[in-house]
Structure formats: structure tokens, C-alpha cells
Amino acid sequence: MARFVDQAKIYVKAGDGGHGCVSFRREKYVPRGGPDGGDGGKGGDVILEATSQLHTLYDFYHQTHFRAENGRPGMGKKMTGRAGRDLILRVPVGTVVRDAETGEILYDFTKDGERFVVARGGKGGRGNARFATPTRQAPRFAEPGEPGEERWIILELKLIADVGLVGLPNAGKSTLLARISAARPKIADYPFTTITPNLGVVKLDDERSFVVADIPGLIEGSHKGVGLGLDFLRHIERTKALLYVLDASRGEDSLKDFELLQKELSHYHPALLEKPSAIALNKIDIVHDHDFLNKLRAHFEEKGYPVYPISAVTGEGIKELLEGLWRLIHKVK
Fold it and tell me: What pTM did the predictor assign?
């Protein structure tokens, strides 16, 4: 399996245009035989193409320089040189392209098959036949080809999912994803089991399905890059809705967990708190104080959150959760 890479800085160089040709045909009574130099061919473009078949920028991890083919020079008999071949680089859907120098967003790939010319090939130079006039019947010069565009760009992958799982390490996100989809993330009883994003497709029935993203857990200071937080926060931006996964067995500490999660989201991007959200009170199979569990549920419902007590291990409450998430994401315009 390819290593998960969600950022890459690469250099792209389009092909240079071919030089125009200086050539004269041999023809009786025509000065110097008559100019017949052809134009140079256009340089190849560097094109980025989005594909749903890729889920990482790993292809740009080891190779960082990419060049399209130069156009061929013009030839005699007014023959135009061959255009350089375009270079097509495939990137995952969800990739944002930025200019490395200015930080400007050049393109944002959101659909399979989308294309963007990130560097245009140079025009071919005109051959001397183009410069013949009644007063200049034998031009002995031609144009050089124009150089192709070149630039450093930053590729940044932001996964596209319907629901993003938000939770502290060991809240049970990976177990939940494994329960509700065919995804098989690594699961263990230590922090940061998930170190790369995982996507799972949830199939409710033959006509209803949605995509859930389980991304590295948040800890305090994640918005500053502490732990694996930035890896999480970058990808959560694209989700339609959020599901806060809380460890209900932590009792009153689960309230503090929720506050920490919202704090980190707010520091990174306040708009994340405006996304439609629900709360999953996980690990109810090991909760002994059911009165407190009911109070916890009532507390969040008063704040306007749909709340679903669940056990990702036993499957209790999962059906109700999935139906609720389906309704939540279909409220999003």
C-alpha cells in the first residue's frame, strides 16, 4: 500500500516552443530561391487531472520536477515542427493547487476527470517564410520559440467525505468506522492508532449510502500542529457534517472532551463549528451510571445537537445513528 501523503511541493515546466526555420527553396527566377522556412511547434502543456482512483499524493513524494516536451523546430518547405507532448499529472479528487510563491489558490479539484493547465507551453517561433514582403523578398531570419511557463506549486489534499468523525484519541472512531463500513482501520488501545485518514462507505440500503472519514484524533494544541492535529483539521474542512465521538465511560470528563474539541476546531477555522453536527456517546456497553448518561444526553440535546448513545463494539444504537446521519447530511444544501 502506498504511503499516505497529503502535501507536496513540485516544480512544473511546460515545453518551450520550437524555433522557426530559415530556409530557401531552389526555384528559378525567385531571389535566393524564395523563403520557405516553417514555424516551430508549440511546447507541451503541464496538465493536472483529478481522479477518484488515487487517495494520496505519494507519486510526488520522491519525484518533484516535471517537464513537458519541447516543440520541434520548423523545417523547410514551410513544414511546421511537431508540437511537444502534453504532460498529464494525475492527482486525487480533493486536491487544492497553490502557487508556492504567492500562496494563491490556482485550482480546487472536486470532481473526477477535472483538468487544469498549470503551465502552458510556449508558442513556436515563425519561420522566415512568414516575413517575406514585396520589399523584403529574402528574409534571412526567423523567430525563436517562446519559453514554456514554469513555477513551483504546492499540492494539498483535503479528503472529501459526507461525515467527518471528530474525537480525542481512543474515543472509538476507528472501531466505529469498522463497524459501519467495510473499512478496516488499525485499532488498538493506545493513542494515535489512526495516523492517516481512513475513508469508509456506509451503505444503509440499495439506494442510500454516504462516505465517512476517520481522521487522526485531536489533542489540546492541535490547531498549532501538536500531535497529529493539523493532519486532522486539514481534511475536516471539506466534510458536509461532523460527528463528535465522545467516550461516555469517562463520565463528566466527556463534557470537557467536547469543549476541547470545539476549542481546537474554532482556533483552526471558526466556520467548522457552523457545520451540521451530531454527537455519538460511545462505549455505553461499559457505562454503569445510566442516570448520568441520560443527563449527558439531555445536556447536549438542550444545545441543539442530535445525540446517539452507541457502542461501536457491540453495535448497540448504530442503526439509529446512521439513520440520523443520513438525515443530517441531507439537510446540507
Answer: 0.68
